[in-house]
């Protein structure tokens, strides 16, 4: 910690991150051990976060992320979308395909930014807010592949055909883990197969979006 930072705020943010990484919550004792601080400090942190609905405790005393984080999350999407648009626009124009940024929303893949090419006679209609199960479509599959860390053994992208729309193919690459957002960048096109140049291009676009988010 430097003199310009707040140790208490840092610990509170670490609590939120730890809780976000588990589905079953954590006890005060577990948090105390992971943070390396005494239980009294953790109790104060939890109580403060509870006042802002960022943390809740169940009947068994396990702390979980509270519903208040949803309000913060809704404000994040527009910022992420604006940062990603230049890279998506370049991707769409270069490939003549609909480009999109997709993030995880529960068990779904949610498109939060979409750019359609300006010069094509026809292209796939793909709208902001479109969602589908993570297990279907290139965008969701790319995210799941990153979770499994199998992407390092592949070409860096996932290609699919006809999983979301008949006659349409898609290719997507996961956002680098270092950017802190679980998502993917990809394109959708009316084609039986994904041309060979598309995969490497979406990988580069995913890196460009990640850079813009830093």
UniProtKB/TrEMBL annotation:
Residues 68-214 form the IclR-ED domain. InterPro entries: ArsR-like_HTH (IPR011991), GAF-like_dom_sf (IPR029016), HTH_MetabolicPath_Reg (IPR050707), Tscrpt_reg_IclR_C (IPR014757), Tscrpt_reg_IclR_N (IPR005471), WH-like_DNA-bd_sf (IPR036388), WH_DNA-bd_sf (IPR036390). PROSITE patterns: HTH_ICLR, ICLR_ED. GO terms for molecular function: DNA binding; DNA-binding transcription factor activity. Keywords: DNA-binding, Transcription, Transcription regulation. Pfam families: HTH_IclR, IclR_C. One of its GO terms (biological process) is negative regulation of DNA-templated transcription. This is Helix-turn-helix domain-containing protein.
């Amino acid at each position: 910690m430097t003199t310009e930072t707040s140790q208490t705020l840092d610990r509170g943010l670490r609590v939120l991150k730890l809780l976000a990484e588990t589905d079953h919550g954590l006890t005060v004792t577990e948090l105390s051990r992971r943070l390396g601080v005494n239980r009294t400090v953790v109790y104060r942190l939890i109580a403060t976060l509870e006042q802002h609905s960022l943390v809740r405790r169940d009947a068994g005393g396990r702390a979980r992320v509270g519903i208040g984080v949803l309000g913060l999350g809704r404000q994040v999407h527009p910022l992420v979308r604006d940062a990603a648009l230049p890279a998506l626009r370049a991707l769409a124009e270069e490939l003549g395909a609909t480009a999109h940024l997709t993030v995880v929303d529960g068990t779904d893949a949610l498109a939060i930014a979409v750019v359609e090419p300006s010069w094509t006679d026809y292209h796939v209609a793909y709208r902001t807010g479109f969602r589908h199960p993570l297990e279907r479509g290139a965008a969701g599959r790319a995210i799941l592949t990153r979770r499994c860390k199998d992407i390092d053994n592949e070409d860096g992208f996932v290609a699919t055909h006809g999983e979301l729309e008949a006659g349409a193919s898609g290719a997507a690459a996961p956002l680098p883990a270092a950017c802190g957002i679980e998502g993917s960048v990809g394109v959708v096109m009316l084609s039986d197969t994904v041309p060979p140049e598309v995969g490497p291009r979406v990988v580069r676009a995913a890196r460009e979006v990640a850079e813009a988010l830093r």
